[in-house]
Amino acid sequence: MKRSVVLAAGLAVIVVSIAVRADQRATTTPNAVPAAPTFATDIAPIIFNNCAVCHRPGQSAPFALLSFDDVKRHGDEIAEVVGSRYMPPWHAVRAEGFVEFADERRLTDTEIATLTKWIVNGMPSGNLSKAPKAPTFASGWALGTPDLVLKLPRAVAVTADGPDTYRNVLLAVNLPEDRWIRAIEFRPTARRVVHHMLLFAVPASVEVRDDEAIPGLGGGGGGRGREAGRGRGALGRGRGLAAAAGEAGAAFGGLGGWVPGVTPRFYPDGIAQPFAKQSNLVAQFHFHPSGKAEIEQGELAVYFSKTPPAKSLTGIQVPPAFGIGMGIIFSVGLLAAGVIFLLEGSKHRR
Description:
Elements: E1 3-10, E2 18-19, H1 39-50, H2 68-73, H3 75-83, H4 109-120, E3 148-151, E4 156-158, E5 165-171, E6 179-187, E7 194-203, H5 241-245, H6 247-251, E8 253-258, E9 273-275, E10 279-287, E11 294-296, E12 299-304, E13 311-318, E14 339-344
Parallel strand pairs: 1-13, 1-14
Antiparallel strand pairs: 2-14, 3-12, 4-11, 5-10, 6-9, 6-12, 7-8, 7-10
Helix pairs in contact: 1-4, 3-4
């Protein structure tokens, strides 16, 4: 019998696989606020570990934070946004004793106090020759050579202003045999306006247009702003709970997605997502206008498992009828024998 790995999803179910793993990233977080913090010794590790992944050329952030001059130039802004915890955009708070999230970028109180003290003290550089080097990032696919690369078959125009819009884009695959997906990686061309992208498997017989909702998945365009639900039996949103729980829950499969700053990862050995033969992919985009007209026509990399997985993933939503009554209390418990591998959540304030 295959061992089950529980996938627990809460709040409004959107994007993106934030994996809970035992291996934790190395940090140089100070245990106490230094008496006289400098960039070289104290600030560079905080910025490079938590900010540079987005604050670099070609990413969604509006400016780079890869050098002392970069950080000093934006010191006042940094003080404001980290003091309010607006940045880094990681708002999940772990309960005491809970395992660290992979790629967690929430600053500690000590890190925030260190940044604030450094800025108040005039942002001294320290000995820059001893500062850690700025991180480097792969120019190609982060996970290596993909098994399949799909480019959006058409360009999607995003206006300079107006309401947020949602678009579905069908990517033709239609393989002759069942496959198992170990990882996906998406590279958008208009990072400033892609709020998030969700990826779903759909039967090749299903026709998908960008101006209609997929039952149980939501979507559509024209600024109507219908939010995405979830396949694989989880109660979605789209055209209603009944549709999501019934036909769509059986027919459509969620495969993850993309948000700014996400780190692509393979599932652990022995785990993969099913991708049935004669299926296509639907990329469902949420676009947020940035003040400049943009064109999105990114590429998607797919990595297949060479063998069927030894473990299965089971998706649940917590609470089952999320949002009803709007009195939201979110807690997660292990509902069956297994391991919680990832949590997916979102909360929108309009």
